[in-house]
């Protein structure tokens, strides 16, 4: 019965999104995330798998009432904030010069060069599995992802068609990410780009546009289920007796898809009553302060580490709990409600006008809207840290390019050339 109630609630969410003036703004993206990650709730149970030292192990469990309450509250929050009017997005008051675009692309090339020097792109391609790749990757991989998506967001708002050929650099990196099995950055980047494109306010989203967006989104999601299965089959990660027909193939793709694993893990975390060390909440935030280990003597803490240590001792590659599992373990439903109130306030903010802050806003938007369902609370803080490091990387490059242009423009040769042009 409760799954039918959740289905009715989800249909109301779809109706509200469909009738919104901008169906791809921050609030709409959060509403869609409740539909995607709430997919197992329509069935009342979830199936998921974990790679273990003994091979692939499959789990099946009914969904607890606590999980339903969490998702009902999420959709109730979405419905409530949907009636709060938000001023139109601020028009950019500053149009960045092309120098900033050059700085982004050159910084991305430098970051990729450092990634190749420290890790080796060819070495990554030869890794036996994804777990081995994750152990080899360093911060330059994350910084390259930040710069790639940021440059694409910049081009959506301020790019000139004459410079579109330079998009080959960020697109090539994202293609490389997909080739080695890392799809999260690209998936969230597409959400950022679509939200940025429709936030410009220059497009009138008709009824047909809304239908096309919904159909394309649904087809893309279904294709991702099948393509993930094909990827696993090519990599040889698992072949079992259950996959004998195309129907079994698609069924395994659905049950192995992220929402089923996340809901299963959330259910297990709630039922297990994970024990966390004292002052865990404080340490989980302070650890992202630069040099916190030497200043405060804080060792890195991770909720997933404690969850795996008390739930899945034999899992390979770790488990990825959600923010809701972490919040419920720390403070139960009251803390989740406080978090959702804060998240609702963030989703009601107007997109900023300053170019840099605008790029940051749309870059972090999918991380903020999907944090509750797919990531722990400290994950966006870590992503923000890498974005800040990427900024420190871009600024010196920008200054160097700007200085070189100024020097070349004021050089005697350039001055004489301009004088000759004026005389002619």
Structural features:
424 residues, mainly alpha, two-stranded antiparallel sheet, 2 strands
Q: SSE order, as H and E?
A: HHEEHHHHHHHHHHHHHHHHH
The number of distinct β-strands equals 2
Mean pLDDT: 76
Helix tally? 19
User: How large is the radius of gyration?
Assistant: 24 Å
Describe the structure.
With 424 residues, this protein is mainly alpha-helical. The chain has one domain (2-415). 69% of the residues lie in helices and 4% in strands. The chain is built from 19 helices and two strands. The protein has helices at residues 2-19, 26-37, 65-81, 98-118, 121-125, 130-136, 139-158, 168-179, 184-199, 207-235, 246-255, 258-272, 280-286, 292-295, 303-311, 323-347, 355-374, 379-410, 412-423; strands at 45-52, 55-62. Strands 1-2 form a two-stranded antiparallel ribbon. Helix 2 packs antiparallel against helix 3. The radius of gyration is 24 Å and the shape is globular. The N and C termini lie far apart (85 Å). The model is unreliable at 238-242 (pLDDT under 50).
Describe what is shown at a glance:
This protein is mostly helical.
Topology of this structure?
Blueprint: H1 2-19, H2 26-37, E1 45-52, E2 55-62, H3 65-81, H4 98-118, H5 121-125, H6 130-136, H7 139-158, H8 168-179, H9 184-199, H10 207-235, H11 246-255, H12 258-272, H13 280-286, H14 292-295, H15 303-311, H16 323-347, H17 355-374, H18 379-410, H19 412-423
Antiparallel strand pairs: 1-2
Helix pairs in contact: 1-2, 1-3, 2-3, 2-17, 3-16, 4-7, 4-18, 7-8, 7-9, 7-17, 7-18, 9-17, 10-11, 12-16, 16-17, 17-18
């Amino acid at each position: 019965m409760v799954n039918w109630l959740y289905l009715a609630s989800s249909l109301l969410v779809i109706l509200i999104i469909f009738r919104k003036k901008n169906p791809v703004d921050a609030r709409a993206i959060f509403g869609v995330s409740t539909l995607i990650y709430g997919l197992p709730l329509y069935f009342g149970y979830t199936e998921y798998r974990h790679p273990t030292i003994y091979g692939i192990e499959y789990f099946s469990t009914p969904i607890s009432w606590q999980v339903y309450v969490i998702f009902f509250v999420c959709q109730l929050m979405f419905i409530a904030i949907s009636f709060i009017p938000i001023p139109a997005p601020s028009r950019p008051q500053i149009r960045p010069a092309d120098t900033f675009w050059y700085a982004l692309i050159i910084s991305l090339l430098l970051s990729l060069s450092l990634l190749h020097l420290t890790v080796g792109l060819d070495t990554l391609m030869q890794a036996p599995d994804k777990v081995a790749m994750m152990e080899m990757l360093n911060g330059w991989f994350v910084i390259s992802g930040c710069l790639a998506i940021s440059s694409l967001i910049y081009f959506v708002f301020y790019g000139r068609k004459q410079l579109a050929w330079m998009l080959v650099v960020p697109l090539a990196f994202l293609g490389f990410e997909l080739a080695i099995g890392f799809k999260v950055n690209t998936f969230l980047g597409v959400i950022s780009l679509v939200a940025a494109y429709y936030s410009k306010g220059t497009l009138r989203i008709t009824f047909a546009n809304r239908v096309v967006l919904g159909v394309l989104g649904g087809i893309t999601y279904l294709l991702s289920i099948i393509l993930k299965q094909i990827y696993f089959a090519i990599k040889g990660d698992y072949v079992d007796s259950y996959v004998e027909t195309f129907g079994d193939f698609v069924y395994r793709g659905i049950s192995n898809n992220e929402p089923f694993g996340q809901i299963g893990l959330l259910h297990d975390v709630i039922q297990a009553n994970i024990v966390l060390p004292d002052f865990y909440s404080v340490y989980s935030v302070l650890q992202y302060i630069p040099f916190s280990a030497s200043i405060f003597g804080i060792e890195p803490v991770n909720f997933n580490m404690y969850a795996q240590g008390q739930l899945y001792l034999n899992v390979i590659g770790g488990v990825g709990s959600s923010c809701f599992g972490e919040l419920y373990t720390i403070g139960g439903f009251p803390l989740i409600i406080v978090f959702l109130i804060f998240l609702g306030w963030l989703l009601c903010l107007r997109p900023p006008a300053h170019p840099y802050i605008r790029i940051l806003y749309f870059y972090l938007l999918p991380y903020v809207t999907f944090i509750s369902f797919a990531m722990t609370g400290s994950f966006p803080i870590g992503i923000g840290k890498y974005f800040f490091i990427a900024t420190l990387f871009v600024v010196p490059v920008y200054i160097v390019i700007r200085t070189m242009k100024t020097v070349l423009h004021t050089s005697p040769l350039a001055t004489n050339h301009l004088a000759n042009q004026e005389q002619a």
